[in-house]
Amino acid sequence: MSPEPTLEAPPRGVRPVRFTATARDAGSAARAGRLDTPHGPVETPAFMPVGTQATVKGLTPDQLREAGSRMLLANTYHLALRPGEETVAALGGLHRFMAWDGPILTDSGGFQVFSLAQRAKITDHGATFRSHLDGRLLELTPERAVAIQEALGADVAMCLDQCPALPAEKAEIARAVDRTIAWAARCQDARRRPDQALFGIVQGGAHEDLRGRCAEALIAMDFDGYAVGGVSVGESREEVRRALDVSVHLLPEDRPRYLMGVGRPQDLLDAVHAGIDMFDCVMPTRNGRNATCFTDAGPVKLRNAAHARDPRPLEEGCDCLACSRFSRGYLRHLFLAREMLGPILASIHNLAYLHRLTRRMREAIRAGRFVQLRLDVLEALGP
């Protein structure tokens, strides 16, 4: 296990994480940059694999790093339930607990306010849940969300927000924006760790005035970074693009911009075009566990009979473990035989694909050809 880096409080006036734009694309809002964190730098645009319960399903830290992962995401709600943030803290904090020595971002649990709405009671004070594990009550307030994340010890913590289920009336979305702003102020007041960044989350659906009001209020609170929320709840690609169009240009140039819960290659290309720096999504590993793999020519469904005797790799030129060692025919066999190696290899490939795509985007931005790269990749991916 790699030694845990020593965390020291930053000097006065220095943020726990610092974003520097290193290149900008002349034909779009795309930018390449560097996010410096207490556990090392991350080149952006960057994709973060989701390790909800302090593990990216089926993959070791070494496999993640070999695939190209540099920063991971874990979840406040799930880790507070099991094993409990006190246990994680007692075992050395989240980095040591999961044997990952790179940067970690923790989601506040706000998405669970949305996804477990039938188990939750939401008020201005916070959200009260019935645990999906044993039915016990869990209260998640802005103060509690910050305290859990500080005990976990992630490099970046997220404010607790309210993400309304869509479609929704504008009045309902406006109430969620008001609550998100109020909760963000309480999160800012509750933070204590000088070595942990805190990001605010912009809500507001596709309404420019609501997004603008939310962004203005959060910017006045001077967060270390800003996320665009409420765009991973079943919208079409066009709806995601519209939310980006009315959100990203409002955010400060000197802070990282994070699009939450988005992982389709097409959406990543659109978001970087709009000026987004960071992403997370369960899609690459969830799709991998279900025998669907990303390629430059579109998805490959490994259970299809057409792959039964196919000696080719998933993708020519990919140097991931799945492509460098195994054929499509063998991978299909693993899934039909229900062997655990199949989902592992497919997940490795999907993460390697997204990391390679973000690397290509960084290189294209630096070379001034991002717009053409985006058009080329979208055309190859197809509808």
UniProtKB/TrEMBL annotation:
Binding positions (substrate): 107-111, 161, 203, 230
UniProt keyword Glycosyltransferase present: yes
Gene3D superfamilies to which the protein is assigned, alphabetical: Queuine tRNA-ribosyltransferase-like
Pfam families reported for this sequence: TGT
Free-text cofactor note: Binds 1 zinc ion per subunit.
Catalytic activity entry: 7-aminomethyl-7-carbaguanine + guanosine(34) in tRNA = 7-aminomethyl-7-carbaguanosine(34) in tRNA + guanine
Catalytic residue list: 107, 280
NCBIfam families: Q_tRNA_tgt (TIGR00430), tgt_general (TIGR00449)
Protein name in the entry: Queuine tRNA-ribosyltransferase
Annotated source species: Paludisphaera mucosa
Gene name of this polypeptide: tgt
